[in-house]
Input
Amino acid sequence: MVPKPPLQAACGSDNGFSPFVESSGQAPCALIHGCIANAINGYLHFLTLRMLPMSLSKSMRLLRYPLVLLIAATCLPLAADETLRVMSFNLRFGSANDGDNHWDQRKQNLVTTIAQFDPDLLGTQETLQFQADYIAEHLSHFTYFGRSRMKTPNEHCGIFYKTERFTWLAGGHFWLSETPEVAESKSWDSSLPRMASWVLLSDNRQEMAQPILFVNTHFDHRGGEARQKSAELIRQRIANLSSIANDPRVIVTGDFNTAVESAPYQAFLEGNDQLVDTYRVLHPDRADEDGAGEGTFNAFQGKTNGPRIDWILASPAFKILSADIERRSFDGRNPSDHFPVTAVLTTHTR
Output
């Protein structure tokens, strides 16, 4: 993996971010299209007054000019509405003593599960380096970004993105603690050091659209206070990054180790820069009071009861086309002890 520059180094005058953000929030081509449309409308109104007493030949000569403007407007690029496929997948760390469910017994099925959904953005949890390497080897159209949560080799909150589709702008890592810049730090009642990784990407299919800030994380499995503080920290980090990164569209994936409607969940969904739960938007009714039927931790047993602890959160700017829990199995065996969750999004940029 080629090291990438930190966001702070990327925020000078030659920062790679779009300098063409107008106060209206429109992209440059959208503004140009609007100006041309106004010019055409004004000119056509002028013609209605001038052409009536003229001969046909003179009238046709006058019509040349709005036609030229119309052709110019047609040739200017507009940002297309493109779908964006997102997946979050806790891989189950590959060195675990899982018997028949050991990484070597399931890694091919796991890659098949990813390939069949074909995500543009993939956030993984409990990812060890050799697991990231295996996925990257077999799905070579991805670029991988991640690091150990410890100073020694350990789990990553790994991010995969399609190399051809996205241009890297910036990226980094921070720890879910009171000292987020200190590697391996932990605070509150967290049982282990926890972290988040993020990338800022430009979508090559939507060059006029805002960049995408993609954050991937894994909350502590024991500390309730730590999960709450971690949600608040990530919200603050998103706000800070958004203020200097051209107001990006935001996607957050992760294993949050807490149920929906919990305090950490609400911390993401409330406030001025709130996110939305992509699954709940399309599935507003829980199966029952215990959330049976939408559980995402399966313990390699395929169970679907229990809480939905794996989420894909997104900016309200995204329209959610689909959101699912992928329960694919192979001869009765699950590729991980968590079901991956998916969402298909789009943004209207015209």
